[in-house]
Amino acid sequence: MRGGIPIGKLFGIALRLNYSWFIVFGLVTWSLAFDYFPNMYSNWSPATRITAGLLTSLLLFASLMAHELMHSVVAQAAGIPVKSITLFVFGGVSEITKEPQKPKDELFIAAAGPLTSLVIGGIFWLIWFVARDTSVVGAVAFWLGWTNVVLAVFNLIPGFPLDGGRVLRAILWWLKRDLRKATRIASNIGRGVGYIFIFSGIWLIFQGNWFNGLWLALIGWFMENAAAGSYRQVALQDILQGHTTSEVLTRECSTVSPELTIQQLVNEQILTTGGRCFPVVADNRALGLITLHDIRAIPRDLWGTKKVSEAMTPLDKVASVSPQEDLATVLQILTEKDINQVPVVEDGRIVGMVGRDNLLAFVKVRADLGM
Which of 51, 156, 157, 324 is the least buried, fewest Cβ under 10 Å from its Cβ? Predict the structure, then answer.
């Protein structure tokens, strides 16, 4: 979901089109222009059918964006940051960076999308009712009306991570007072629904309906993977909760001088140690951090003259944590910032580094010990 084309921002949320979106956009447009509209309106010219197909597809995906945007707006109102919304081959996904803190928040966030689709469907049916005599407008509005209603109903299937599965998780969470248990139950139901979709799709393929069968099987595969991944994420957060950075940080991290050139840093540190992130220190005072990402931003022909101090990210602009920071919060920071490690700072000094590898090693050791 990380690849894609930025198309703007709304309410501070980045909107993107994943490259896979163009596949389904083409398929929907083709199906409408050369199958649905010709069968329903045989008197239309080819140009009218193609125009109606393109317009309908664009409005459909605008509806999907509105569906996801409403999830995100409600999440923001609950104090949950949302980085982006991405349209992709199976619809849309909001990148909500942490789990809701209350069952009520989860319920409202989950229900917002289907309710939005129902409202949009009702608006399009109202347009159809008013403009039935205007052939193209009425035809487009009618198709979009029932499609948005179907989208709302489909999303209410209690298969996590569909909206219906999230509503189910919110109810279970409220009843059991345990997010992890609620997620496990909702996730298992979601995986079951995914397998039903997969086997139904395979059955359709053997019946000769290979296109719908393949599509249904792919949706089932996506649901099963997403449901399992969602539970793993919550379980990981639960394992890390209550443990601090001081338990896992790496104290033996190489520091570098701000006076080194980029070429010296590459030759003397990166190529010899395999390190990817180095604290920049002068007179026992942390100045910042330099990473491979910072180095790649410098043209290769300037590596011999550019100093580390010119390429580093200053400390006040670096995401950092204290030795007492909760590991679940550290994981959230790594996820939100899309980084692999953060410096651990105490009294203005970098006392170590903590990264994804430290967290995974911590979890693995606890699992090996049966904890």
Answer: 324
d(CA 37, CA 78): 43
* 186 neighbors 165 (Cβ within 8 angstroms): yes
Is residue 259 classed as helix, strand or coil in its secondary structure? coil
Residue 224 known to be catalytic: no
Could you say which of 68, 95, 106, 325 is catalytic? 68
Which residue in 190, 152, 214, 200 sits closest to 23, CA to CA? Answer: 214
89 token code pair: 């081959």
- Distance, CA of 216 to CA of 222 (rounded, Å): 10
pLDDT at 100: 82
Residues 6+ apart with CB under 8 A from 306: 261, 262, 298
Shortest CA distance to 367 belongs to which of 185, 205, 236?
236
At 354 the three-state DSSP class reads: strand
Q: Is the pLDDT of residue 106 over 80?
A: yes
Q: Confirm whether pTM is higher than 0.85.
A: no
Instruction: Name every residue whose Cβ is closer than 8 Å to that of residue 113 and which is 6 or more positions away in sequence.
Output: 67, 68, 70, 71, 152, 155, 163
Q: Tell me the pLDDT of the chain averaged across its residues.
A: 85
